[in-house]
Structures are given as C-alpha cells and as structure tokens.
Amino acid sequence: LASVTEEILILRAAGDKFSETSAAIKDDLEKDFKLTEKVIEHQLTPKNAINDIKNYITSIKPKLIVLIGNNPVRLYTSYQKQNPDQVFPPSIIMSALHVDRLLQQMQNTQGIRHEIPAVTSISNIRSLVKQPIKRVGVLYRKWMKDYIQLNAVFCQKEGIELVAVEMPNSFSVKSLRYNLKHLLSKQIDALWV
C-alpha cells in the first residue's frame, strides 16, 4: 500500500472537462496519495509555463505526473527536451489528442488514447440510416494530417472515401466558413466532426 506522503502531481489544462477528469482521479487516489493539482493556463508564455513546471517538480518531487490535456503535455515535453540529462518520474497522458504521436517524443511516459477512428463512427452511422454513406468530409488542422491520412486508409478498406480539407493550425471563423462551404461542394454524404 502506498504511503499518503507519496505525491502525485496533476498538470491539467483549464476547462470543465479537464477539471472533471482531475476530480475523478482525486476521488480514486486521495486516500492513498497526496495529490497536487496545477492548472496550466493557455495564455502563459511557454517559457513561463515550463519554468512553473520545473518549480512544481522541484518542490513537490512527485512519484508520478498526470498530464491532462494537450497544452500541459506539450509544455512538459518541452521541459523534458530542455533537461535531457534529468531522470523524470513516470508520467501518464490523459484527455489529449494523438497520444501515440506524443509518446514518441517523451521519456518515461505512458498514455491513454481515446480517439475513435472515423471508420468506426461512420460504420455505426451507416447502420442507422438508409442513405448510402460513401464519401465523408472532414476539415482538419494541418498538425492533424498524419491522423487524417491514417483514418483515410482505414475508411478506404470499408469502401468509404474520406474527403479531407486541410486548414492552417490557426484560423478565423471566416476561413472556417469558407472551407466548410468548399467541403460541402464536394458532394459528400456526411461530415466527420
């Protein structure tokens, strides 16, 4: 049995869903571990946020770090890269996109992947509607290209064409509206959201 003096550091993104994930972890583990939660605000400059992470790790000396959301993962990855000779405590990624890709860049880290492949969602919808679904449209940010290409391969095996329109990583509502209209003009049967 763990000692209540052993610490777990939870680094999470701001937001209700991330807060709920953290609360569930606390409910399960607070009797066995001392839990410290730190919210990594998105508006912090990366340098300041990485410095904060360093200070948390130095002062708390956690036995485990739980990373909730992409922003804390990205910043912790940067912290690891800036300190290549440091031995890092085990960490786990939760509630983040593309965990498998993120894990390749990190040391002593595991993750829980929760993305549902497009083919699974589309096949389920096919079983519910009479209209054939053969072409499915998706708008995606540039950084998601590998994930979209992988999903296109899975879809192709099921006779589904994934019609993808790439957008920049940062975009305006106006460009979103324009690209959505462009995608809808490609005679798609459904949208993958």
Strand ordering within the main sheet: 2-1-3-4-5
The arrangement of helices and strands along the chain is EHEHEHEHEHEHEHE
Largest sheet, in brief, is: 5 strands, parallel
Put simply, the count of helices is 7
Overall mean pLDDT score? 90
Number of strands: 8
Quaternary structure annotation: single chain
Give the low-pLDDT segments.
Answer: none
Percent range of helical residues = 40-55%
Q: Which value, in Å, is the CA radius of gyration?
A: 20 Å
- Characterize the overall form: elongated
Distance between the termini: 43 Å
SS class: alpha/beta
Quote the beta fraction: 15-25%
Summarize the model shown:
The chain has 193 residues and is of the alpha/beta class. The protein is 42% helix and 22% strand. The chain has helices at 16-29, 46-60, 70-82, 99-103, 118-126, 145-157, 173-184, and strands at residues 7-13, 34-40, 64-68, 91-94, 109-111, 135-141, 161-167, 190-191.
Written description of the protein model:
- This protein is α/β, with parallel strands linked by helices.
- The chain has 7 helices and 8 strands.
- Strand 3 (64-68), helix 3 and strand 4 form a beta-alpha-beta unit.
Which key terms come to mind for this protein?
single chain, about 190 residues, alpha/beta, 3-stranded parallel beta sheet, 8 strands, elongated
List the helices and strands and how they pair.
Blueprint: E1 7-13, H1 16-29, E2 34-40, H2 46-60, E3 64-68, H3 70-82, E4 91-94, H4 99-103, E5 109-111, H5 118-126, E6 135-141, H6 145-157, E7 161-167, H7 173-184, E8 190-191
Parallel strand pairs: 1-2, 1-3, 3-4, 4-5, 6-7, 6-8
Helix pairs in contact: 2-3
